């Protein structure tokens, strides 16, 4: 990534820039008048939808990182390296799970620009779930996405050298890893200026989070895993705002946090987003029926993930971990079972961290934070914190996803509002 080849694009400079990229011209049409709309609702980057003015179906998405946090401005510098990792991860995902990610038309690490397929018939999963929409395929798509991307970039699948070479291409996503270390695993569990504030929630957190030694040490153990356990290439920001869906398809976007970390981080984050939404529907219009749908998706996600992961494992040739002749069939079966139980427990712990961070930390989820009534909102927030603590405390009792679901159902059987 060089400085001399970088410039920030805007609506005025985009047409000329795009005209120089044949793959993009092919989509938009030679010499076409362009409509350019800034659609980024995110915090970090500039995202534009560009389409042929006389044929809106001919469209692309242009995403560019600037060397600061978009929502704050230049006074909060943030290396644009993040786009290098998003480009690299999306390139790899296009090989591993091409039906579950946008196609890349052009990527330029020097310009920190990614130009990709526009998902014009899809919406952000979070928004759909807030509205109580059922998506029949999303849980299996997420399960398959995680199984393929995590298994195939792990030492259970890859040879030792090729995996280290791949890791090397992701090790320096340092600033975004540091954001996660601080904003998911540290600040929400203490008094910190960056934290969100809602009086009743603050009071509860002071008494039941900041002073709960065991919980804080457990969270720290998960931070340790995040920092030191490079199982596989993670998406590392796999929440319901990073999925675009409709009734038939699901696409994963926004992989700028990608790095080598623990398997359970992606799995736990996904599960926590279904739970955060479930809690919100004690107030939102979806009610009991939609809450039930959300809860039912959790075993579908896990079971799809587990069976696809094990299918890939059983079909794998020699890898850094698995050498023919070392284990008997029974030993291999035992290894896989113990592995999956540990992964389930790890996922429960990361789900717990994610729920707390989305409640107490700076970056909340619209599912809860957009509820205007502060009293209602704090009741939902406290429920999310209680569920986080329960998942964390009971994670090591889990032997199956049904065990996890039983804890969650038991939790929700007490009044939330
Ligand atoms: N390929 C795409 N097709 C259609 N819309 C897209 C696509 N990629 C992104 N978007 C839209 O742009 C928004 C912002 O994209 P994205 O989340 O990648 O940006 P970001 O700056 O990294 O945001 P965040 O602060 O969430 O990290 C998405 O929420 C979505 O609405
Ligand atoms: Mg992002």
Kindly report the name of the CATH homologous superfamily of the largest domain.
Answer: Aminoglycoside phosphotransferase (APH), C-terminal lobe
**What percent strand?**
5-15%
* Largest β sheet strand count, sense and barrel closure: 5 strands, antiparallel
CATH architecture of the largest domain: Alpha-Beta Complex
Number of helices: 15
Strands of the widest sheet, in order across it, are: 1-2-3-7-6
In the CATH hierarchy, the third-tier topology of the largest domain is known as Aminoglycoside 3'-phosphotransferase, Chain: A, domain 2
**What hetero molecules are bound to the protein chains?**
adenosine-5'-triphosphate, magnesium ion
Low-confidence spans: none
Question: What is the share of helical residues?
Answer: 40-55%
Summed over residues and divided by their number, the pLDDT gives a mean of 96
Please tell me what the overall shape is. Answer: globular
> Span from first to last CA?
51 Å
* CA-atom Rg in angstroms: 22 Å
**How many runs of DSSP E, i.e. beta strands?**
12
Structural class call reads alpha+beta
Q: Helix and strand succession?
A: HHEEEEEHEEEHHHHHHEEEEHHHHHH
What is the count of structural domains?
Answer: 2
Q: What kind of oligomer do you see?
A: single chain
Q: What's the CATH first level of the largest domain?
A: Alpha Beta
């Amino acid at each position: 990534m060089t400085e001399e080849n970088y410039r920030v694009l805007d609506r005025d400079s985009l047409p000329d820039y795009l005209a120089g990229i044949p793959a993009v011209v092919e989509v938009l049409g030679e010499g076409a008048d362009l409509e350019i709309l800034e659609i980024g609702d995110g915090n970090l980057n500039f995202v534009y939808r560009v389409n042929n003015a006389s044929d809106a179906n001919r469209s692309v998405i242009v995403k560019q990182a600037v060397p600061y946090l978009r929502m704050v401005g230049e006074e909060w510098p943030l290396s644009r390296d993040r786009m290098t990792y998003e480009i690299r991860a999306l390139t790899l995902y296009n090989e591993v799970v091409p039906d579950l990610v946008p196609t890349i038309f052009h990527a330029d690490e020097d310009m920190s620009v990614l130009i990709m397929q526009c998902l014009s018939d899809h919406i952000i999963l979070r928004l759909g779930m807030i509205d109580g929409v059922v998506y029949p395929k999303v849980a299996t798509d997420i399960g398959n996405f995680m199984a393929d991307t995590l298994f195939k970039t792990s030492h259970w699948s890859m040879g030792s050298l090729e995996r280290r070479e791949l890791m090397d291409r992701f090790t320096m996503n340092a600033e975004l890893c540091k954001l996660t270390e601080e904003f998911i695993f540290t600040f929400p569990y203490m008094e910190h200026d960056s934290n969100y504030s809602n009086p009743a929630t603050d009071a509860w957190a002071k008494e039941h989070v900041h002073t709960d030694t065991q919980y804080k040490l457990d969270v720290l153990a998960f931070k340790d895993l995040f920092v030191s356990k490079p199982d596989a290439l993670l998406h590392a920001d796999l929440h319901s705002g990073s999925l675009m869906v409709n009734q038939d398809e699901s696409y994963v976007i926004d992989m700028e946090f990608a790095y080598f970390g623990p398997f359970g981080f992606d799995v736990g984050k996904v599960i926590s987003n279904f739970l955060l939404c479930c809690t919100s529907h004690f107030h939102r219009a979806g009610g009991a029926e939609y809450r039930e749908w959300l809860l039912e998706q959790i075993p579908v996600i896990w079971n799809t993930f587990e069976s696809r992961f094990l299918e890939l494992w059983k079909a794998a040739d020699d890898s850094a971990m698995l050498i023919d002749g070392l284990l008997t069939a029974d030993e291999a079966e035992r290894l896989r079972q113990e592995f999956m139980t540990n992964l389930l427990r790890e996922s429960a712990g990361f789900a717990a961290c994610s729920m707390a961070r989305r409640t107490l930390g700076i970056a909340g989820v619209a599912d809860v934070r957009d509820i205007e009534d502060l009293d209602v909102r704090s009741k939902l927030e406290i429920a999310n914190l209680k569920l986080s603590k329960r998942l964390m405390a009971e994670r090591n009792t889990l032997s199956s996803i049904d065990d996890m679901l039983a804890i969650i159902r038991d939790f929700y059987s007490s009044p939330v509002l």
